[in-house]
Amino acid sequence: MPTDPDAHAPRREFDAGLLSPASAGSDAVLADAEVLGALVATEVALVRAWAEVGVAPRAQAAELSSALGWRGTGEVCTGFDAWLPQLAEEAPSGGNPVIPLVPQLRDRTAPELRHWVHRGATSQDVLDSALMLIAHRAGRETLQQLRQTETALAQLAHTGQDRVAVARTLTQHAVPTTFGLRVAGWLRGVRRATERLSGAMSELPAQIAGAGGTLAGYVAVARAELGSEERAVSAVGELPAAFAAELGLATPEGPWHTVRWPVTELGDALVQSVDALGVLAADVTTLSRTEIGEVAESRGGGSSAMPQKRNPAHAVLIRSAAIRAPHLGATLHAASALAVDERPDGAWHAEWPTLRELLRLALGASTHAAELAAGLAVDTDAIAHNLGKTSGLIVAERLSIVLGPIIGAERVRDIVSRVRAGAALIEMLSAESGLAEALAARGGPSIEELADPAQYVGLARQLVDAALGSPAHTDAPAPTEEPG
Question: pTM of the entire structure?
């Protein structure tokens, strides 16, 4: 039989980000090596927590921490990348990577320390806690990018708050608005999502429940070491808080092997963040179309065949994340609903890749959004040009409201039809007998003011001011405004 030339080749990396440009370059914190480091850190944190509650000798906990590369609260252990291929190969036999990891860790520690590795724990305690640690680390980076996006959007809203623009409803020109108010909408959505993600992250708990959710194994360990049931129960009562503190996570209110709100609430917050960025991206892709041209990304993407193109690459990649994220969130909810008995049979396993991919999309989308918002160029000439495309009928709603009681709704519709056919709005209004006098008698606007889009933006400035009056960061460089 011929020899396969690749049979003994090094194992290739499965996913280097080639087909994931939305997150490539920003998702290293979610790599398999980081997950493995979090699993090791979780095992070390448990030993350190045993020492903190007076069950394990502190000297042995410190020695084991050193042997397994403990780097401190909220950090992952490093130096275990070489184990990844074997652990990935062996994980299916037990259904999770913790089972083959534990003997590897024991082999790496001194004989007198080995019995403390994984002592009292179950695989789900370790894997859930490690995923919460990874989520917290990735979430911190995502929040940083979201706040940078807020900063840039706040400056953009401030700069454009008096820039009158077309408001579009159902794709069509509707009434005047301001570019600043449009941006303020993006800002409010991102800010709300940031607040919710920050809140969800602050509640990410460690998992410590034992094999059946009773912590019986932990009590047995403490009883064996302390010699007293009462002292053992007291020590284990303090163990969850000590364990969570070592990892930098919240203290669990109880076992959550099948009570999966920590995962679903985090997932919901991540989806909301990507949703908010998706609105920004969708508007940018529309406004940067060649025939609209009101905005452009500072570093437009190129084309392999059409060198004239300036593609909104950041917005496109954010949109790709926004299309996928809600479905990942739905998978987390389905898994939560099917978390049966005291250990889910498949629902738990479905969460791992789903949550990581959702974290990956949120981090990637927020990274692209921060760069997009900081460099978004605004073409004021294009905005003005588009505002005039309907020959003044952008104020048709105002004409109906103001003129209807004076000249009648039918006459207003006739004026609008004539303007649509090519007549000049100001001339049509000026030719209307007695109209200027009637407007003046009512204390209303002049004909010129009536037809001026800038005079029909309602509370746009106040709404922008209100958005900027919330805690926002306005110290970013001013965005670029380009003439057409």
Answer: 0.91
